[in-house]
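Repro:
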Amino acid sequence: MTAPGRRSSTFTRLLRHGFTDPSAAEELLDGAELTEVRSDPVLLEALGATADPDLALHGLVRLLEAQPDPTARRELLDTLVAAKPLRDRLLGVLGASEALADHLARHAGDWQALVTYEPRDLHPGVEEFERGLAEATDPVALRVAYRRCLLSIAARDVCGTIDLAETAAELADLATATLRAALAIAEEAAPDDAALCRLAVIAMGKCGGHELNYVSDVDVIFVGEAAGDADETKALRAATSLASHMMRICSETTVEGSIWPVDANLRPEGRNGPLVRTLSSHVAYYQRWAKTWEFQALLKARPVAGDPGLGAEYVAALQPLVWQAADRENFVADVQKMRRRVVENIPAAEVDRQLKLGPGGLRDVEFAVQLLQLVHGRSDTSLHSGTTLDALEALAAGGYVGRADAAQLDEAYRFLRSMEHRIQLHRLRRTHLVPEDPADLRRLGRSLGLRTDPVAGLQRAWKRHASVVRRLHEKLFYRPLLDAVAQLAPGEARLSPEAARERMVALGYADPAAALRHLEALASGVTRKAAIQRTLLPVLLGWFADSADPDAGLLNFRKVSDALGKTPWYLRLLRDEGAAAENLARVLSAGRLAPDLLMRAPEAVALLGDGATGGLAPRGRPQLEQEILAAVRRADGGEQAVTAARGVRRRELFRTAAADIVGSYGTEAQPVEADQGALVDLVGDAVSDLTAATLAGTLRAVVREGWGDTLPTRFAIIGMGRFGGHELGYGSDADVLFVHEPREGVDEREAGDAANKVVAELRRLLQVPSADPPLLIDADLRPEGKSGPLVRTLKSYEAYYRRWSLVWERHALLRAEFVAGDADLGRRFTELVDPLRYPADGLGEDDVREIRRLKARMESERLPRGADPKLHAKLGPGGLSDVEWTVQLVQLRHGHTEAGLRTTRTRAALAAASCAGLIPAEQAGILDEAWVLATRVRNAVMLVRGRAGDTFPTDPRELAAVGRYLGHGPGHAGDMLDEYRRTARRARAVVEELFYA
């Protein structure tokens, strides 16, 4: 008897053997069922070797209690003690699977299935499993027989007799035998249906790939044909009935539970299509309608049940189509988009626990392997395997994947699949989530051989393997391209030139030969620079491939690298600052404007980093003016000063374009900006502020060069049009008015001559040919238009506007805002024009008619010949002009009484009109959406083509790049055009009601 307060020696031994509840275990060992063996050290050692000794002991007691009589109990105990194979198998299963312990408790004689230990029992195939299921003639009996077979697989698995790949293959073979048995039961129940048709069951997914889980949907496709001279319609009806019955036999819940769901949703048209089709119908669908993912799914297609001849015909007919899938436009992008969609659909609370679908999970390995198979399997039949690990081995053997990368992925995949198996085995439930309960984690860790600290060890191993997958799965596609051109590591199998070309074409490169030359130039050699490039390029190539023009992205990256390759910070920035490399890839492959701006001063790459010196947030006008004016003060002469100012402008244009591109494309660190209006405002404010600061600096340089510190006349620049409205795009001219006022004691002629010289020199310097983009000044909105003087005194403006101003000029003045020069003069000019643009009495009917007439005339005369009006972002129906004139008409009518309307900004005025009840909120929303979209189209065209335009490009690549900027994926340019037409059409309807009514 144990003294009070002291633990028994058994209690201590139980703790040492891994029991977590030694008291309960001690009670069970002292029970009647284990009286004869409780002191046997062999039993305790065997229990301690299981994943969960407490669970194993509890299951053993239940099994002993379930034996029908003492003789049967004695037989079990004797065999348990005497036969080590049975002991390890039985206790291993009981310690790993509560569900199989329940099965054994219900079917007390099934432990006998674990007794035999012959070589032929170690690796059973379909025939052996069919024999094990042969006596099952109804769904309940089939479930019992299935569990008995499953018991033997689980026993060999947990004891390490078979490895992960063999376990998955046996589970697939058992599923094959089960499908055949279920179909036989269905046919026996409906012999007339069976006589009418030939039915083949094609396994898909993991069952087809011979790599099934313990609990998984079994994906299938059914093919049916008429038997003999039977009517095809009746035959298909009969085949559908048989297929449906077979699915129910496996899926429905009975007193013995269910086996697994049979899922036929991978069939043509999914759940909306017929359950059974003829072979010709399948072929016709895949030839005409199938999407890329459907060919990817066919990689694993394998006939498993029913008519073997028909199944073989199905595979023979469709396999050639599988290996043509990589020729489809946007093939790689489609596959990668499907993978991203899977990740996006994972509930946020589950992402970090997902073994299968999460980042670094099983699906990453499977997608990467399948992508490579589809690209290279066209010319290499050794890659035609539906099994992930076999295909990975074949890819490495053929040089399509580096051997070291393949080995790491193989190890990671085996570990993650083993985790998945053990999690599912516990309760035989379909799950891919790592448990959170410490007891479950402990059992899981111990089942994988982690005994010293199973929970912490499991977490470390899982994170390490997931990290390997996350790091390698995308690079897997790109790294061999570098190995093929870098010519390092003699003797290593590598991609052939033709295989490398195939892969570049699949990625979307129009000129794969040139792309491979760029890779060779960047990655060849043994220098530190080449080594860093070989680290960066696999990731960069993926980002380039995600754009509409991968060729341009890679070429531009080579140019930048050639220009900056010798600087110590460039490659370090891309390697060490997380955002810089992806930002650069997005910018270099999004079109011509941003790369052109960058090539003129490649050191601006530093802006793309996420460190203290980087950052893409546009700078405010005060900061810009301060920098430009300081550069002007340091310069020798006006031309040098303006060159410095234009250099700042070029750099800041690049910063703005890069921020716009990154916000539109999104990156790993920064998702796509959901508010498209915010991106429009960012560009409009940034470019307008930059233009104002450039004008201020240029004005200071011109005055200093010609007159020293003081000009004989006060001088101000008034922004007009989009400039005054803070809505400039990348390719916009700067609409301005020039106003001056002679200083006290200065002759008006002298002041006028000085002002005109300033204007002439300012315009000349801003357009001098140089490496920096010119800034075009447009003063055509001045009084009398092109016929009037370029610059006037404030009094001249006052006299003109009082006597001669036309309604179009008052209309144009709605955008007038001081931007540079003498601030007091600018303020007084604004005060002068306020009564004109916000008239106290609003607009008369004659003025309204004149505005409408001018608008109609502009639409008819200024729209380019041959342009599609419905796709013209500026002058077309529902375009910028429609929205702006509608808003400006409201401003002219009500600006005097509604303070919110007294703004030069279109969106702000539209919002104010809505708040004041002058435009219904719904209509204001429609107009705002159309204006934002049209502005984004113009910005996109400039970014992509490098020159301004108001219509969508006709070149397919350029059109695709505009679509990518606007959020439309590869192959969806038509959707983009439809969206624009739809948005513009709705806006035009509002304009018709508000402007023309």
